Amino acid sequence: MGYQTIVFEIDAGVARLTLNRPDRLNSFTAAMHGEVADALQIVERDPAVRTLLLTGAGRGFCAGQDLADRAVVPGDAPVDLGDSVERYYAPLIRRLTGLPKPVVCAVNGVAAGAGANIALACDIVIAARSAKFIQSFANIGLIPDSGGTWVLPRLIGQARALGLALTGDPLSAQKAEDWGMIWKCVDDDALVHEAEALAARFAAGPTRGLAATKALIRRSSLRALDDQLDLERDAMRELGAGADYQEGVAAFMTKRKPVFTGR
């Protein structure tokens, strides 16, 4: 399909998805949700795609929901925001966290509201030094959706999560790194290079092993240690029979660079 609100391209195993409404800080509309969902379906189904790189066009990553798209007017019948979450935002977070391929997010500017939590749903977040993360929901009487109430306390602890959620104060990229909320803060002019290099590294990596690692770590907080040990055993058994493991060992033994195929 022809996209109007995103730019989507695939090259050398990397799918690049750029939110492309820069005049509105890449805030989401129903149309953008539909286009992102379509692109993610391609990423899920295309075996040639081995990693996803998500970013935004212009001076911001994503300002969350475009409030103009909902046309809320005082005195009108209330809008069912739960329907919006159920129809659009929750499925998006589930797809990003459940994608059996690494997801790199390059935060090139403000990430606010749902935009901040969409970024945090990605596996590795690299942010430009000028970027800011804002849980802006409190400013309009809402709660942090798109997984915000789940991921924030797990990443930075309850005290900091409550501080960000209740005040809506901006958090700098450098402090986000210091707090362990994101992987890395880099100079603005280094963001594209860092993100592209990491995406290329994953695209050339052992895809099944990376996907299994992602799945096990993301769900570990929901399990007891004994259960996790059993799942690690099962994953090692399955991956040990794969071509990528054999190639990795052969490359190590012969002191050459491995050529993984994602199998």
Nearest-integer average pLDDT: 96
CATH top level assignment of the largest domain: Alpha Beta
End-to-end Cα distance: 29 Å
Structural class: alpha/beta
Helix content: 40-55%
Question: Could you give a short account of the major beta sheet?
Answer: 6 strands, mixed
Give the total of beta strands. 10
The number of helical segments is 10
The name CATH uses for the topology of the largest domain is 2-enoyl-CoA Hydratase, Chain A, domain 1
Topology summary:
Layout: E1 6-11, E2 14-19, H1 30-45, E3 51-56, E4 60-62, H2 81-98, E5 103-107, E6 110-112, H3 114-120, E7 124-128, E8 132-134, H4 148-156, H5 158-167, E9 171-172, H6 173-178, E10 184-186, H7 191-203, H8 207-219, H9 225-240, H10 243-253
Parallel strand pairs: 2-3, 3-5, 4-6, 5-7, 6-8, 7-10
Antiparallel strand pairs: 1-2, 8-9
Helix pairs in contact: 1-2, 4-5, 8-9
What does this structure look like?
The chain is an alpha/beta fold and 263 residues long. The protein has 2 domains: 6-203, 2-enoyl-CoA Hydratase, Chain A, domain 1 (Alpha-Beta Complex); 207-253, Lyase 2-enoyl-coa Hydratase, Chain  A, domain 2 (Orthogonal Bundle), CATH 1.10.12. The chain is 45% helix and 16% strand. It contains 10 helices and 10 strands. It has helices at 30-45, 81-98, 114-120, 148-156, 158-167, 173-178, 191-203, 207-219, 225-240, 243-253; strands at residues 6-11, 14-19, 51-56, 60-62, 103-107, 110-112, 124-128, 132-134, 171-172, 184-186. The chain has a 6-stranded mixed β-sheet with strand order 1-2-3-5-7-10, sandwiched between helices. It has a 4-stranded mixed β-sheet with strand order 4-6-8-9. Strand 1 and strand 2 form a beta hairpin. Helix 4 (148-156) crosses helix 5. The protein is globular, with a radius of gyration of 19 Å. The two termini are 29 Å apart.
